[in-house]
Amino acid sequence: MVVGPLTPGPLADQVLDLAATGRAGLAALLGDAAGRHALFRPGMRADRFLVATVGGELAGYLSLKHAGRGPFAPGPGDFIRCQGWRRGLHAWAVFSWIEARTRPRPGGAYIYGLDVLKPWRGHKRGRDVGGALMAAAVEAATRLGYASLDMEIRRPAIRALVRRAGAVPVVARPVSLTRLLMATAGDYERLTITLSPETRHGGA
Q: Distance (Å, rounded) from C-alpha 111 to C-alpha 22?
């Protein structure tokens, strides 16, 4: 298994196309898979992705948000282009509020998304694709000089995966934006990995 940054080519197109059809839980707001692809794909940032391959075959990918930038950030113009003025502006406003939860805390980075393709989930074929992607994300965030790596998770399988990587619940100050955003997360749980200060160095 090879894990590393996403580089231009057919594999990058495959990953970006898959990621652009994500957020299925917001289909009522963002539209079906084709609608989400039209909204997100034009502005996708390949430099925010890590990818895992086995024998050249895509096994999974992970996206990061740091330095104020994630894998995509559609603006009001993108929503208007895809949904028209009235619906587009409303959808953009709601989506922007939801996306505020993905804002990294000061000095930190954020795991925006993690997807292991179905044939590779679990420890199939003797490989832990999710674990390898998590380790690569920790290494990348540490190398960039961040103090923590946050994420929001819901599915039990993902919870077990990130706990193995050292993630613990975020403890937010009683009066803080982080506490407010966590209160709107529903059944999602905010977790964090503290990154080793000995290996960090400045950069974003």
A: 14
